[in-house]
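Help needed: design a sequence for this.
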């Protein structure tokens, strides 16, 4: 194996394998110990001997390829020295050729030094070396009938294929694999598996499957891992039925199906939004006593989380515990991240506590998810507190976690603390990157401190970080929000000089930020100057108008686009809807909603609530109910807020039957009425009762209304819901206006006994009842109690008292007349 049969290539024979007498003086190496041990081997009878007094490095460079090969083979039992000698020569400018590369490769293969072998081939590939000639040379030393089982050639081609993959040259790697067959021997299945797997990771599943189909032509039999890779490739393509057929191929081949194949299939189902089926398959195989690693459960959990089926994901964790399996860090962290993504922070915390109680180590991914969730919910102070708690517990916090908190501190206006946190990162030798600097720049911009932002920008550049498009967009936004349109446009010109071309996001940021800074005309001019406007540019202009409260302009632009058959993205539509709702433009609301639905842009449940609230405020209950019914008809279940708004609207227009129908409907759907819902319904009944009492024909119906109100009151108490100050005030006001002063007083005393403090509205309601009865003394006493508690009477209170005094005076005058 060590000697080439081609003298034309090497021009040496077996005698060269025997070290020759030393005639060259000293060869200079970086390592003294190495040079001292190597020197006895390098004394050849060459012309260099006459120059032994010359420069040692020059003597080294005068070695030819044959001499280098001879030295390498003499060091074959000392591979580390052979490698060092090879690279010393290369570093000093020696031009290695096919013979020297073949020699070092043989040594590396013999000793199984795969990393060094990979490095040699990788360098050859980058240098565009003639690999084909090298392979010819390496093959010449192997007897033909041993090629099929040559471990030497297996190692050579395995290293070559992997090196091509590392260099991103997949076509060359495939060619090298099939070249083995053309050279008369069969590649190892491990090499095929590696190549197929990396090709799949590179997004070329079809190519990997094509290689699989050619394996038999190469004389190879797939192993269990090969089949798992094929299943993985088919699942990525979405060919799930073909993937299940592979299991039959496994059975026919006699290969024992292992954990890898089962995992690949279940992972494929989950990746294709079929987590329910994937988990059913897992349970079926589990029942068949097929052994599984805990990892497969984390796959199912991740699948359910990606589909936002968080209850089912949690169910997988519970099933694991029932089966006696201990969930690992991956299972917990996947589910916690899912809960955070779904905004279910309490569940995430509960799971975190469970994780800690069972001794499962918390990682920075879990911490980062919780911190990010807190910030997404606007709970920046809580995020900072949690960060400090985790840090005090000694939990490792990575650069991502630090960046989240730096951003939170910036949003809280605590820039000094944000800077201190970045300094702490430097002390801990953590790598600050472009993301951290950009976050801090954004913090300064949000505070309007453009000088501070620019200083950070300059520091970032001095540290060798080149600003990216995101950094420039942040700066441009900061300029625009301060009304510095000229500076923002100047920044765009500067970007171009730095080979950073402004993109659509840059344009959108400038449009929206100019509007936010009150520079609407400048924003319009910039927008009009954009050539080939995209739909996102129009969306930015609509958003900008909304931020500047130019809702009419935003609405007109939206209508113009919709008439052309275009619809801006959902978030833009929702911004416009929100503005229309705030301004009470009901016609615009309904028109926009109709166009959105016609173009399959579905508002969120939250947005539906805003629309219904706006229509209800305007007293347009008919259209509010149409929107409510549309919400239900599109598969979205109204929540308690939606129901309560509709019930309140019906109560306000004295449609108690419709209000009660909705009340019963929400309970039928499993939505439990809360205190606000009961208060709204009680208020509706009280006001309906007052209207009947004050009507000329008040004898009929009063008892029925009173009974209905008492029924609601009883149901509320039976539900365990205790009235608050607002609820008591509603009841006291109703009884006072219905001339049921005694009941009003009882309720007033009851709330005080329960430790609830009446507010000015409560006092005014009872004071009105007293005055209505002519009980001025009691009214004055209530006024005195208010002053003792520091509650200042308002115009409503004093007006009620004045009317009471006047009424009492009239009654007194009438009595005197009777006398």
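Sure. Designed sequence:
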């Amino acid at each position: 194996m060590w000697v080439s049969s081609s003298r034309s290539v090497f021009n040496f024979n077996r005698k060269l394998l025997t070290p020759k007498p030393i005639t060259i003086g000293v060869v200079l190496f970086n390592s003294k110990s190495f040079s001292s041990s190597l020197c006895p081997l390098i004394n050849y009878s060459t012309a260099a001997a006459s120059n032994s007094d010359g420069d040692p490095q020059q003597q080294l460079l005068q070695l030819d390829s044959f001499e280098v090969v001879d030295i390498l083979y003499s060091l074959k039992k000392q591979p580390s020295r052979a490698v060092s000698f090879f690279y010393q020569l290369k570093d000093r400018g020696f031009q290695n050729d096919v013979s020297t590369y073949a020699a070092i490769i043989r040594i590396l293969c013999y000793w199984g030094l795969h990393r060094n072998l990979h490095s040699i081939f990788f360098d050859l590939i980058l240098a565009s070396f003639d690999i084909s000639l090298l392979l010819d040379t390496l093959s010449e030393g192997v007897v033909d009938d041993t090629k099929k089982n040559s471990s030497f050639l297996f190692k050579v081609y395995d290293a070559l294929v992997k090196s091509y993959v590392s260099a991103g040259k997949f076509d060359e790697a495939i060619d090298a694999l099939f070249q083995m067959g053309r050279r008369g021997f069969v590649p190892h299945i491990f090499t095929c598996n590696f190549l197929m797997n990396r090709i799949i990771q590179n997004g070329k599943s079809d190519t990997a499957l094509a290689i699989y189909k050619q394996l038999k032509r190469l004389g190879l039999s797939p192993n269990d891992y090969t089949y798992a890779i094929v299943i993985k490739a088919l699942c990525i393509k979405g060919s799930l039925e073909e993937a299940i057929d592979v299991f039959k191929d496994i059975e026919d081949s006699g290969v024992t199906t292992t954990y890898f194949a089962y995992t690949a299939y279940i992972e494929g189902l989950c990746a294709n939004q079929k987590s329910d089926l994937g988990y059913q398959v897992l349970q079926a195989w589990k029942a068949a006593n097929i052994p599984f690693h805990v990892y497969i459960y984390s796959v199912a959990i991740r699948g359910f989380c990606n589909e936002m089926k968080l209850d089912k994901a949690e169910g997988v964790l519970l099933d694991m515990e029932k089966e006696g399996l201990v969930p690992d860090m991956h299972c917990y962290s996947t589910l916690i991240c899912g809960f955070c993504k779904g905004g279910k922070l309490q569940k995430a915390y509960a799971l975190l506590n469970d994780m800690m109680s069972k001794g499962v180590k918390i990682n920075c991914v879990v911490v980062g998810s919780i911190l990010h969730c807190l910030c997404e919910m606007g709970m920046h102070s809580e995020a900072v507190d949690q960060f400090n708690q985790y840090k005090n517990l000694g939990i490792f916090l990575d650069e991502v976690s630090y960046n989240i908190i730096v951003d939170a501190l910036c949003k809280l206006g605590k820039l000094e603390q944000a800077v201190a946190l970045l300094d702490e990162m430097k002390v801990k030798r953590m790598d600050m990157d472009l993301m951290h600097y950009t976050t801090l720049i954004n913090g300064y911009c949000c505070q309007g401190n453009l000088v501070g932002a620019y200083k950070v920008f300059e520091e970032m550049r001095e540290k060798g970080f080149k600003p990216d498009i995101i950094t420039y967009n942040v700066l441009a936004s900061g300029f625009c929000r301060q009304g510095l349109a000229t500076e923002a446009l100047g920044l765009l010109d500067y970007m171009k000089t730095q080979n950073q071309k402004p993109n659509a996001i840059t344009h959108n940021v400038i449009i929206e930020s100019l509007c936010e800074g009150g520079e609407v005309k400048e924003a319009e001019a910039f927008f009009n100057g954009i050539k080939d406007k995209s739909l996102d540019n129009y969306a930015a202009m609509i958003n900008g108008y909304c931020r500047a409260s130019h809702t009419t302009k935003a609405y007109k632009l939206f209508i113009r686009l919709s008439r052309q058959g275009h619809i801006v993205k959902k978030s833009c539509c929702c911004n416009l809807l929100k503005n229309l709702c705030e301004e009470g433009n009901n016609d615009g609301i309904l028109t926009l909603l109709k166009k959105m639905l016609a173009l399959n842009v579905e508002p969120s449940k939250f947005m539906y609530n805003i629309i219904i609230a706006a229509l209800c405020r305007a007293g347009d209950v008919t259209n509010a109910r149409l929107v409510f019914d549309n919400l239900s008809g599109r598969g979205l279940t109204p929540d308690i807020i939606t129901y309560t708004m509709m019930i309140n609207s019906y109560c306000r227009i004295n449609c108690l039957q419709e209000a009660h129908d909705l009340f019963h409907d929400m309970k039928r759907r499993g939505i439990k009425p809360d205190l606000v819902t009961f208060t709204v319904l009680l208020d509706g009944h009280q006001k309906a009762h007052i209207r009947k009492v004050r009507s000329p024909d008040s004898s009929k119906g009063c008892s029925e209304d009173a009974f209905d109100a008492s029924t609601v009151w009883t149901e509320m108490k039976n539900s365990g819901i205790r009235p608050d100050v607002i609820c008591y005030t509603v009841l006291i006001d109703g009884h006072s206006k219905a001339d049921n002063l005694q009941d009003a007083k009882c309720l007033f005393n009851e709330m005080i006994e329960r430790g609830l403090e009446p507010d000015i509205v409560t006092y005014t309601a009872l004071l009105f009842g007293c005055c209505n009865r002519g009980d001025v003394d009691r009214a004055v006493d209530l006024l005195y109690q208010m002053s003792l508690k520091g509650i200042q009477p308002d115009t409503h209170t004093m007006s009620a008292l004045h009317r009471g005094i006047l009424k009492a005076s009239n009654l007194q005058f009438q009595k005197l007349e009777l006398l």
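The two ends are 140 Å apart (CA to CA).
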